[in-house]
Amino acid sequence: MIPLIGYADKLSGRPGEKVAIKVSSELGGTYRAELVRVISGDPNPAGPGVRTAPVAATFEGEYPARPQRAHLGSHMTAALRGPLPPRFTLRATIWPTTPDKGRQGVMSLVDGSGSAVAGLSIGPDGAVLTLGGVAVAVGKALLPRRWYQVQAVIDLDAGTLRVTQAPVHGAGVVDDTGDAETTLPADAAAAAAVTRAHTVIVAAVTETDSASHFNGKIEAPVILAGDGDVPLAAWDFSRDMASLTVSGDGPLTGDGVLVGAPVRAMTGSNWDASQMCWHHAADQYGAIHFHDDDIADAGWQTDFEFEIPTDLRSGVYAVKLTQDAHWDMIPLFV
Question: What is the spatial distance between Cα 130 and Cα 116, in angstroms, rounded to a whole number?
Fold first, then answer.
């Protein structure tokens, strides 16, 4: 764990623009922040070493230290616009790269606190459906880099959970097609909670659990009424591929937001190799590749913000943080 570290919301700016500084300290107490002009940033002992000159700044001073965490892994999150019915289906097409890693979320339903109340995931036993403390798995391992359709049916009226998996392009020499079903206890409190799910997460069990993030491609996640007749919420990854927003379709659908910058415009299960560019056949590039170690922004809270002085000349500067014997410099090009 790095004792003292920080970053800015931008690497460069013009006089008059605002810069937000985010800091994490494991040391407790307070740290000091100041602005310096970087004369030499090379720590090589054979060279001049790190040389700076202090610059007066309005933010200079002591700030309370606090630890902040960076959560690795990319996923999509989308709010649900209403309650789910007592019988519904979670379905997605997947191309896993590490199917034996452990539990990896495909579609997860979470409550207002961010806790998973139900979800479709994969693991060494293939596709798994979890609701509260009850889980049912197909029991057949998935092959890496092969397209599958995985599906979970939650029927609260009948008190049953059913999960299925099947290769998209037909059975091979390995027995990896199957389904499994179990019943819910009559007093399963999570059964009522699942209909009040607040958010859908694609490619993770929860947003902050890096270990449960999915490795591989996911295509066409959807929530359907009943056994799969009417789409309630669907996301088409072949649309708006230049953005981190995914448009949703269906009465319960909120637009999806991609976190951690997963790779868009990836070949989908229907790619026939006739086009090498997604611009020419967007419908064949309707997958997103997620990774459990992706990161785009740590998402830390801002410790302080300052405006670049109008009289500051162009050059290389840094916000220098010091606490006890530890220090860090956050670069800023003006």
Answer: 9
**pTM, entire model:** 0.88
Residues 188-206: tens digit of each pLDDT: 666 768 888 999 999 999 9
Angle among Cα 205, 209, 214 to the nearest 5 degrees reads 55
Cα radius of gyration (the chain): 24
Q: Is the dihedral of CA 122, 124, 126, 130 positive or negative?
A: negative
Coil, helix or strand at residue 280: helix
**4-70+298-333: what CATH class?**
mainly beta
DSSP state of 71: -
Among residues 266, 327, 302, the alpha carbon closest in space to that of 8 is found at 302
Q: Where are the domains of the chain?
A: 4-70+298-333, 75-290
**Residue pLDDT, tens place only, 261-287:** 999 999 999 999 999 998 899 999 999
Nearest to 193 by CA among 130, 248, 150: 130
Residue 225 phi, psi (nearest 5): -75, 145
Q: Check if the beta carbon of residue 204 is closer than 8 Å to that of residue 114.
A: no
Residues 224, 91 contacting (CB under 8 angstroms): yes
Q: The tokens 């799969």 sit on which residue?
A: 228
CATH class name, domain 75-290: mainly beta
Judge whether 233 and 222 are in contact, CB under 8 Å.
Answer: yes
Asked whether the CA dihedral 197, 198, 203, 206 is positive or negative, the reply is negative
Q: Give residues with Cβ within 8 angstroms of 230, minimum separation 6.
A: 224
